[in-house]
Write a structure and sequence with these properties.
The protein is an alpha+beta fold. It is built from six helices and nine strands. The protein starts with 8 loop residues before the first helix and ends with a helix.
Length: 151
């Protein structure tokens, strides 16, 4: 699912490390090593790396970028509308990403991702219609998953 993670997977999950599965009441599975959450999964949806992993390995996910005006809304957990991804300062990848792609959400003028989301339509479709919900957030800076400590 994530071809760019293959070269670094042995760094993320060392061969002799003990990977633990932690299940929550909300049907969210957390995959941890030494108390650090590496991946999460809601019910039977795709396995998703956390922002902490994405910050260490920024090229493992394709990127979309929001403009400065959208940053405060993304940090409050709002999904991203197409105009927030197509306006000046925003950026979508050159190659089309299909609906359902897991993406890193970058912010104009910032180095690290501020969220991870899933596309609700292809990026070419986002560019052409420029309305509606483009990316649903799965994880963002400051959310409970960002703050979690597993003992």
């Amino acid at each position: 699912m994530y071809p760019n993670i293959e070269p670094v997977i042995d760094e993320i999950i060392p061969k002799k490390a003990t990977l633990m599965l932690v299940k929550t009441k909300e049907r969210i599975s957390l995959y941890t090593i030494d108390g650090n959450v590496l991946f999460f999964q809601h019910f039977d949806e795709p396995l998703v790396p956390t922002l902490r992993i994405l910050h260490q390995y920024p090229d493992i996910l394709p990127k979309v970028q929001v403009d400065r005006g959208a940053i405060k809304f993304v940090l409050s957990g709002a999904n991203i509308m197409c105009p927030g991804l197509t306006s000046p300062g925003a950026r979508l990848p050159e190659t089309d990403l299909p609906e359902g792609s897991i993406v890193a959400v970058m912010a104009e003028g910032k180095t690290h991702a501020l969220a991870i989301g899933i596309t609700k339509m292809s990026t070419d479709h986002m560019k052409s219609i420029n309305k509606g919900n483009g990316v649903d957030l799965l994880h963002f800076l400051g959310d409970p998953l960002w703050k979690i400590v597993v003992d």
